[in-house]
């Protein structure tokens, strides 16, 4: 229910909400357990018919960073157990946990309730630690151990891509026969091509500006600093061109500490007059930012998929992304955008300029972007999830003799 781009809310929030809503339209009742982060949260809230969000009180409402959440697992698990205890036996048929913290609670509930557990990691600590930004903080050993436990306990594992499935096998010893590859989707009813001139007018962006956009949590993993450093290179190389950089998102994790504060970096690079910092915004407004941009940059050090890349392409804007993780699936290199190896600002400036300053190439990639996004939909995601759920339920059904 949280706005993506604020705090630790991001693509996983979008994934859970979109799949839950579509599961409900298939006649499946969904209950989502999440930690209450405000005293204003009711014990339960209907997101839509068939989708109920339960807010579990576990620790203080505000002021907990992600690295403090493991200390609230016991309290959260107790809240989940109590909610089930108020129901008739057999009320829940299946559990789907998202992220390793929820997986820890999920495999406890699985044993208590006698139902199968399906797990989506969304990000993997061993993968993140192998591809960190400079001076970023590695994921703690406790998370690595926790992920290994969840991988071992889950009946089915959902991977966004074949590459993620390989990582689960190679780094975590997962059983290949228990992995289902189910790519995320994009809401093309909200994210769709529209008037670039209208979007720019609404944002106060001039028609002759070359516009680069970034959307996501402001933290080293997402590498918005790479875009700023590349923009500084472009501005120095092409003093006669007007550039604009739109940064949408809020500080998150280590992005809150001094070495990673983006506004300070923009000032240091002399970009204050060309960078607009915009707050996290709902999908329709984010689509307007994408439409206003010539290119959307996704320079992350790692992404299990990268929903922003799909949303930008669905809006008709090409994406220049780091050639890592699921971005290699989300972006069709040379068709809907470009994939850039590494994170060196000079190389990124080269790639950005090769599209920005070539109108024919920019137009071709802009035409290919929505076609690439159309390959993915939340309905297809739900189709894959339902198949995985059925496998889990079939495997756990008692054998009759």
Structure summary:
With 401 residues, the protein is an alpha/beta fold. The protein has helices spanning 11-25, 73-85, 99-113, 125-130, 141-153, 162-172, 196-203, 224-237, 262-268, 283-292, 307-314, 327-330, 345-356, 359-373, 378-396, and strands spanning 30-35, 44-48, 51-56, 95-98, 117-120, 156-159, 179-181, 210-215, 243-248, 275-278, 295-298, 319-322, 337-340.
Which key phrases capture this entry?
401 residues, alpha/beta, 6-stranded parallel sheet, 15 helices, 13 strands, 42% helix
Helix content: 40-55%
**Oligomerization:** single chain
Order of helices and strands: HEEEHEHEHHEHEHEHEHEHEHEHEHHH
Classification by helices and strands: alpha/beta
- CA(first)-CA(last) distance: 46 Å
Query: Number of DSSP strands?
Result: 13
Indicate the proportion of strand residues.
5-15%
The helix tally amounts to 15
List segments where confidence is low: pLDDT < 50 over at least 5 consecutive residues: 254-260
Largest sheet: 6 strands, parallel
How does the overall form come out from the CA principal axes? elongated
Average of pLDDT? 92
Query: Order of strands side by side in the largest beta sheet?
Result: 10-9-8-11-12-13
Indicate the radius of gyration in whole angstroms: 22 Å
């Amino acid at each position: 229910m949280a706005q993506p781009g604020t705090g630790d809310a991001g693509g996983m929030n979008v994934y859970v909400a979109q799949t839950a809503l579509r599961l409900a339209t298939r006649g499946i009742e969904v209950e989502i357990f999440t930690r209450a982060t405000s005293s204003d949260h009711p014990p339960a809230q209907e997101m839509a018919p068939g989708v109920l969000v339960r807010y579990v009180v576990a620790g203080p409402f505000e002021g907990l960073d992600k690295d403090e959440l493991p200390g609230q697992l016991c309290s959260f698990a107790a809240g989940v157990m109590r909610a089930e205890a108020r129901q008739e036996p057999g009320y829940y048929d299946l559990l789907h946990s998202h992220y390793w913290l929820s997986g820890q609670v999920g495999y406890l509930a699985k044993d208590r309730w006698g139902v199968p557990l399906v797990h989506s990691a969304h990000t993997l600590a061993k993968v993140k630690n192998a591809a960190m930004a400079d001076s970023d903080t590695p994921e703690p050993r406790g998370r690595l151990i926790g992920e290994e436990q969840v991988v071992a306990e889950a009946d089915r594992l959902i991977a966004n891509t074949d590459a993620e499935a390989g990582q689960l096998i190679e780094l975590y010893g997962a059983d290949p026969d228990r992995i289902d590859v189910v790519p995320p989707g994009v809401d093309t009813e909200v994210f769709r091509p529209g008037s670039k001139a209208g979007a720019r007018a609404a944002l106060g962006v001039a028609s002759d500006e070359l516009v680069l956009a970034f959307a996501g949590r402001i933290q080293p993993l997402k590498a918005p600093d790479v875009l700023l450093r590349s923009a500084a290179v472009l501005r120095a190389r092409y003093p006669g061109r007007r550039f604009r950089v739109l940064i949408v998102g809020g500080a998150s994790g280590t992005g809150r500490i001094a070495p990673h504060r983006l506004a300070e970096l923009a000032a240091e690079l002399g970009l204050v007059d060309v960078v607009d910092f915009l707050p996290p915004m709902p999908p329709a407004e984010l689509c307007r930012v994408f439409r206003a941009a010539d290119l959307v940059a996704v320079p992350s050090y790692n992404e299990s998929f990268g929903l922003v890349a799909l949303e930008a392409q669905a809006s008709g804007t090409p994406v220049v992304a780091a050639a890592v993780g699921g971005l290699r699936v989300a972006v069709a290199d040379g068709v809907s955008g470009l994939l850039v190896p590494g994170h060196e600002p000079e190389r990124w400036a080269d790639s950005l300029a090769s599209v920005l300053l070539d109108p024919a190439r920019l137009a071709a990639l802009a035409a290919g972007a929505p076609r690439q996004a159309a390959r993915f939909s939340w309905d297809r995601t739900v189709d894959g999830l339902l198949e995985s759920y059925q496998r889990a339920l079939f495997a756990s059904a008692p054998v009759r003799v």
